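Obj: model holo form, ligand = adenosine monophosphate.
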Amino acid sequence: MKIILLGAPGSGKGTHAQQLTKQLNIPQISTGDIFRKNLKEGTPLGLQVKDILAQGKLVPDEITVAIVKDRLAEPDCANGYILDGFPRSIKQAEELDKFDNIDCAVEIDVDKDAIVRRLSGRRFCPDCNGTFHISTLSDATKCPACGGKLIVREDDKEATVKERLRVYDETTAPLLQYYKAQGKLKTVDGNGTIEEVYAKILKVLQ
Ligand code: AMP
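Output (holo structure tokens):
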């Protein structure tokens, strides 16, 4: 099954993609993770996108589409995949339609104020890529999964969060209409617990 997870930053796409990838045994393709990995490793791509990520802007479509196209051509994507954070613009969606045919786009719909709360309490582990919320951590500096040092992602800082939400409304939200017109959009209320929202996602995928 070829699935797109749509939703504002902080809507839970990454968390649910991680659960789905285990349950459905298909890979999670997160463009954000790909960019952060390159940043961490100091690759030419990493240097190219460093400032863009820090400012909460979008990496140019040509760069992002080329990366995804290459990734989806790998053998592990043959039986399907979960796209987390891509597409993020109509242009990216149109390009994706030229080289693949997705089955459905699941929108995780979360209230804006809940999103700001979630993002400002979010902590990231650069060692294992885990994301956690301070409300669930006994020690807000230590990764509960691998013991690594937790950080606040540069793009989870307040000014960047505001810019990411603005970019979402302006450039990414129009995708909802795009997939609705194709009859592929499924919307899930993302305001419950992780377990509740995940159960709703599984239901719409059936
Ligand atoms: P994420 O972890 O999905 O929130 O992505 C983190 C950052 O990576 C975004 O704020 C963008 O700067 C960049 N990024 C991720 N996915 C895309 C995409 N599909 N198109 C453009 N930029 C992206």
